[in-house]
Design a protein that fits this description.
Layout lengths: L3 E7 L3 E7 L5 E8 L11 E2 L1 H18 L7 E8 L5 E4 L9 E2 L7 H9 L7 H4 L8 H11 L3 H6 L3 E4 L1 H9 L9 E3 H4 L5 E2 L4 E2 L1 H7 L8 E3 L2 E6 L9 E7 H8 L8 E5 L3 E8 L10 E6 L7 E8 L3 H9 L10 H5 L9 E3 L17 E3 L7 H27 L5 E5 L6 H11 L2 E5 L4 H14 L5 H7 L2 E5 L5 H17 L6
Parallel strand pairs: 1-5, 5-14, 9-12, 15-21, 21-22
Antiparallel strand pairs: 1-2, 2-3, 4-7, 6-8, 10-11, 13-14, 15-16, 16-18, 17-18, 19-20, 22-23
Length: 499
């Protein structure tokens, strides 16, 4: 009997393959970064071929670490950066262009054009999403209009669209030689083309965005037997789970009850709250999205607060300013000062997402004096993540009428103890890090394991969750409110910068 479950975690900056055992412990892990391509200001691209190569390499490396063979794996789950858009040729398997990453803002003119007739929220009732550069719909349209000759091929189904989960599943199951063209409801809900209520592609939306139905994948649940891998060291292993990365973290944190929430601190920051079997329309700048659909069980929904730039701001400090050599060094630099020195950093590099949805906002640093040094800047970088999270929590509590008792935190940045303490301080809530921090990959493994009987049910998964570390708030209320006022003032300075 297979002893383990595998998960491909394809993120914005890197790809990992992780292997978990029955107790949710990590058995093997390999990771590899891919290039971030910036052809013009505001444009962000990835090379799909590089991502596919890296996926194969990390699978091989992780399997070799523990001397595993394909027969040791009961199934593989896939979790992925969402909204990032790939178009490729069905016959050759070759991408027609680089992938347009979720952060890419080149479609801003389309946003204005579509919002002119019916406003930014004209599709919210069906999709739960505002018109924005963020989602896949306008990225597909841009590629169809700017890559010569592909629109007729898309109409014939010879050029295929997929988010990264779709692209990897297609390649893993044969590619041009019979690869399956699928996605799950969570990723489909981020294209702005799926109806939240029918869980199907919507003809009215496709017409509004100018996207042909034949190029779209089949929408499946998040946990079922999709197909069998035909490639590399996992040949013969079922592909049985797919979840967008933030929904995967929700599952990995076992937030299966309405009102339970998690925040993932990665390239961006994404706070999701389970709202149960009915979608809740936000009145405070959040997104309504699919949480997961496990096999034939009813779909579950979530409210989401999406923040574009958090961990990416640490990378910017490292790569663009050279103030640190490795991202892990930021905590040490930030601890060289007692506070932020009055410096606030609003990282609206690609506009502001929740709760503002300001496409034309741009990044600002405010409060600079001759006193400020690189330690204050490092501290402001970390605090920006916590301030943005607080604003999303405020919006979520207004929408749901539920006050969070504790925030479950995961992702790469939760290893930063200074950030986690400040998050508890500025939220005035307990922040909890689970024992197994790799909740995104774990959620994909859970979805795959449920589909093949490796795990029995969600009660079993919930029993596996345990606390790793807890942070309690210890900031005085007067100081907290003063800092929040300063932050909100700084945010307004970022508005309407791009014309």
């Amino acid at each position: 009997m297979a002893r383990y479950i595998g998960a491909i975690d394809q993120g914005t900056t890197s790809t990992r393959f992780m292997v978990f055992d029955q107790s949710s412990s990590v058995v093997a892990c390999a990771q590899k970064e891919h290039r971030q391509i910036y052809p013009e200001p505001g444009w962000v691209e990835h090379d799909p071929n590089e991502i596919w190569r890296n996926t194969q390499e990390v699978i091989t490396e992780a399997m070799q670490q523990h001397s595993l063979s394909a027969t040791d794996l009961a199934a593989i789950g896939i979790t992925n950066q969402r909204e990032t858009t790939v178009l490729w040729n069905r016959e050759t398997g070759q991408p027609v262009a680089n992938a347009l990453v979720w952060q890419d803002t080149r479609v801003a003119d389309y946003v204005s054009e579509l919002a002119h007739d019916g406003g930014q929220n004209r599709f919210r009732a069906k999709t739960g999403l505002p018109i924005s550069t963020y989602f896949s719909s306008l990225k597909i349209r841009w590629l169809l209009e700017h890559v010569p000759g592909i629109k007729p091929q898309a109409e014939a189904g010879d050029v295929l669209f997929g988010t990264i989960d779709t692209y990897l599943a297609w390649n893993l199951t044969g590619g041009p030689s019979g690869g399956i063209h699928i996605t799950d409801v969570t990723n489909a809900s981020r294209t702005q083309l799926m109806n939240l209520h029918t869980l199907a592609w919507d003809a009215e939306l496709l017409d509004a965005f100018g996207i042909p139905m034949p190029m779209l994948p089949r929408i499946c649940s998040s946990s079922e037997m999709y197909g069998i891998a035909t490639e590399g060291g996992v040949k013969g292993v079922p592909i049985a789970g797919i979840l967008g990365d933030q929904q995967a973290a929700l599952v990995g944190q076992t937030c299966f009850n309405p009102g339970e929430a998690k925040n993932t601190y990665g390239t961006g920051c994404f706070l999701l709250m389970n709202t149960g079997s009915s979608p809740v329309q936000s009145k405070h700048g959040l997104l309504t999205t699919l949480a997961y659909k496990l096999g034939t069980q009813p779909a579950q929904y979530a409210l989401e607060g999406s923040i574009a730039i958090t961990g990416a701001l640490v990378q910017w400090l490292r790569d663009n300013l050279g103030l640190i050599q490795a991202s892990s060094e930021i905590e040490k630099l930030a601890r060289t000062v007692e506070d932020n020195g009055g410096v606030y950093f609003v990282p609206a590099f690609s506009g502001l997402y929740a709760p503002y949805w300001k496409e034309n906002a741009r990044g600002v640093i405010v409060g600079l004096t001759q006193y400020a040094n690189k330690g204050h800047l490092a501290r402001a970088v970390l605090e920006a993540t916590a301030f943005q999270t607080r604003e999303v929590v405020e919006a979520m509590e207004k929408d749901c009428g539920i006050k969070l008792d504790a925030l479950r935190a995961d992702g790469g940045m939760v290893q930063n103890n200074l950030l986690m303490q400040f998050q508890a301080d500025i939220l005035n809530r307990i922040v909890v890090r689970p024992r197994v921090n790799e909740t995104t990959a774990l959620g994909a493994a859970y979805a795959a394991g449920l589909a093949v009987g490796f795990f029995q049910d969600t009660d079993e998964l919930r029993a596996k969750w345990s606390v790793g570390q807890t942070w309690n708030p210890r900031l005085e209320e007067v100081e907290r409110e003063q800092m929040v006022r300063s932050w909100k003032k700084a945010v307004t300075r970022s508005f309407d910068w791009a014309e």
